[in-house]
């Protein structure tokens, strides 16, 4: 291997710097260690050997909103001291013309090209540039062709609408008129006859005080080409090194040669400019809701760990499957295979982030006011409860800290000044909807209390009213039926939510569903309705079960019509084009009858299960009436008073491998 010592030393230095930057990023971005490693590994060949590639390095970043995709990339290249990052919002380009987009890119690239620097492109909000609509029809996005050209080869051409050309065309028209109408005679670039006609034609172009044109002081007053046009010509031609060299050439031409020279210059300037960035680095950043199954669940009560487990299972095939509903196959192929998949944050990560942000507040107040703040763990808890909405990432936490912490600091400072109290230390706690702020200095202690208006947590509090009791019975039906049919204990159940829209029960099912599991899911979905009917009577049923009923009807029809789980593996569908979902169409045919009978059988079975375990249902319902939530360990504590259960999880639900081995042994 032949590498010069200076080149080798530079490579080693850059590699060390990249590793140092990687460590810094891990300190600044909580919960993204694996993502940071993956991105740094992907850019390393480009960073160490930028001129060794023949086409751009394309890296795709996909994730939920506000999980640190764009900010991580920006910070990465800040730390690498590379100021060639060009960021474009794809959504802002949709109403632009092809020329506007190419011109926007080329104008930003001029300085980089001039300094011989390699650009780093960032195309953000990429999902907005979709070329396939919801109906599967193509969308005309010719204006975004420049992006696809860059992704493919790193090259694109642009016909630049240059004002120099417009000015030269005006000059050419005037010179043509003067020469071909024999108004003037020209020799060696000078007007030798009828200078007055030229003066009248170009009076508006005279600007003898313009010192920006290097040649002005030396250029003859009676030259055929006005001095103001020399800069325009020079800007379009690379075969002249200076204005003086160009002027000297013009002074060798006669009238016809001058006109042909300007026509040639306009033609040169009108040719498309080709930009070659095959050695560039391109980041494609977007949100793919179809890949992140529960991303439309914006409830603040949604469990962060549960969403994390779902997003942890997302694979590159899921990403490409989601992309196929947005882009044509040949476009997806241009994105390559470097897909960095962001997970949602789990509870631990959110808590680490909150601690990090509170520590920033502590440092800022120490630097600004020389005051020491110590936050009680109750502060971390209230920020988590108030600020975490798992599908919305970290931004809600930042705004929550501003409203619940930073906005109160000014009040504390003002109140201490009014009391003539010199603060050295602050102890900050939360309880019973109020802050207790303990101020202290060398000799005194002063306590302040502030009411805290919570926008989320207050709605979670148990009211123990009729509505909560009704929801408690409904959710208890789901909980108990899940345990009795699948042996899977729900992770969480709520009888009162932050957005006050009823309750929900969170059950983690195995990735693949058997016929038995699907039938049990139908039973579980029907259990809320059944529990309401058993406890409150048929006449007191509410419309709250409509979502469950819709889901169980759909599931029963899919078992019979779509999944091939009837007698034969045949798929049936409704031929009615007016039905948007062909599997949720109850036509009175034999397959719909099978689905109806399956639902009836499941409801009857669920009714027997809950009737047999009525005491457990009442106990669980009573707990959820008095408390707005119940978690897995609390559920198991109540259940073990009535029945013994060998619980399963989604990861150890099936026993296929042992069944196969057993049959092979036989």
Verbal overview:
This protein is of the alpha/beta class and 666 residues long. Helices cover 50% and strands 11% of the residues. The chain contains 24 helices and 16 strands. It has helices spanning 5-28, 33-48, 69-79, 98-114, 145-152, 163-180, 195-201, 230-236, 243-250, 255-270, 304-312, 316-323, 329-334, 347-369, 377-387, 395-418, 457-460, 466-486, 515-536, 546-562, 590-612, 614-626, 632-639, 656-665, and strands spanning 57-62, 85-89, 120-124, 155-158, 185-187, 190-193, 273-276, 281-286, 339-341, 372-375, 425-431, 434-440, 445-451, 492-494, 504-506, 629-631. The strands form five sheets. A five-stranded parallel beta sheet has the order 2-3-8-1-9, sandwiched between helices. The longest helix has 24 residues, at 5-28. Residues 207-215 and 582-586 have low confidence and may be disordered.
What descriptive keywords fit this protein?
50% helix, 5-stranded parallel β-sheet, 24 helices, alpha/beta, 4-stranded mixed β-sheet, 666 residues, elongated
Q: What is this entry, summarized?
A:
The protein has helices at 5-28, 33-48, 69-79, 98-114, 145-152, 163-180, 195-201, 230-236, 243-250, 255-270, 304-312, 316-323, 329-334, 347-369, 377-387, 395-418, 457-460, 466-486, 515-536, 546-562, 590-612, 614-626, 632-639, 656-665, and strands spanning 57-62, 85-89, 120-124, 155-158, 185-187, 190-193, 273-276, 281-286, 339-341, 372-375, 425-431, 434-440, 445-451, 492-494, 504-506, 629-631. With 666 residues, it is of the alpha/beta class. The two termini are 60 Å apart.
